[in-house]
Known about the structure:
Elements: E1 4-9, E2 12-15, H1 16-39, H2 46-68, H3 71-76, H4 89-107, H5 111-136, E3 151-152, E4 161-165, E5 172-176, H6 191-210, H7 218-235, E6 244-249, H8 252-257, E7 273-277, H9 278-297, H10 318-323
Antiparallel strand pairs: 1-2, 3-4, 4-5, 6-7
Amino acid sequence: MWPTLVDLGNGAGVHTYGLFILAAFCSAFLLVHVRALRIGLHPYRLIGIYVAAAVGGLSGGRILYSLAVEPARFFADPLTLFSFSGFAVYGGIIGGILAVWAVAQAQGIHVWKLADIAAPAVVLGMGVGRLGCFFAGCCHGDVAPIGADPTGLFPEAFTGGQAWLSGVSPYLTLEFYGGVGRLHDTPLYPTQVWAAGYLITLALLLSLAWEKRRFDGQIAAITLLIEPWFRSAVEAYRADHRGVAVSWEVSESVAAWLPGMSKAGAELGEATTIGLTTSQAIGLAAVAIGVVIYAVRYRAGVEAETPITAGDSYEDDPALADEL
């Protein structure tokens, strides 16, 4: 829709997607910072967490994208891992969780409390990042019905694309005239807008629930139980280049109801072949983990927390004083 904010020529410039990825990290870190003060975690101790989240997230996102979407290219030239030409959100989350868990353990930070303040922040960052997908034209939907006499929301002078309002489902469609996606000049399901909307809303609800949590780890568990179902629903209408965990034959009528799942591979796919995408498979595993966390931690309660005020010094935290 608007992939490049400033074009310097020869492929160089300020890319909108990169700016939104930066904004996603910043918004997530800010929310973690605010909550950390509430549970008595000094900002100094968050530096390592932030570095681990950034490095682990970027690395995990590239690894999963390379393995799920372009494995042939990756195994032929493993150095493409450092090209940053594609990024898988779930891979970034997995990589970030593993890196943050390791650093938290090393620093003696309460892992479950950290998970509870991180979960809404991660979801918020994902939502902001999906806005970057909208501008870049990636993560787009399948071809969608537009109906008669649709209304364009953008002026005709805008050369990036168009958003159409119509009287038929899905009522709002997106058309990209360029960008990194593989479907151009045709109305598509607005999967990026759907994802950004539900993720930002979920982040708000999780933040409200954080105030009423009954045990450490509850917010993280709720996130794992809820978010994958919305992601799977959106995936059913996406038609960009994604990997599939498993595929099978169905009738044409079933495939018509799940257009994105028949078009998740390298090619647009046959009309009667649908696949469980890599993200949907990871989502099912996430739900199972959420159930386990809820069952194991349900009676753990919330351990005592001492909020930090502006007048507190680093030495007020014995663990931090030892580090310093």
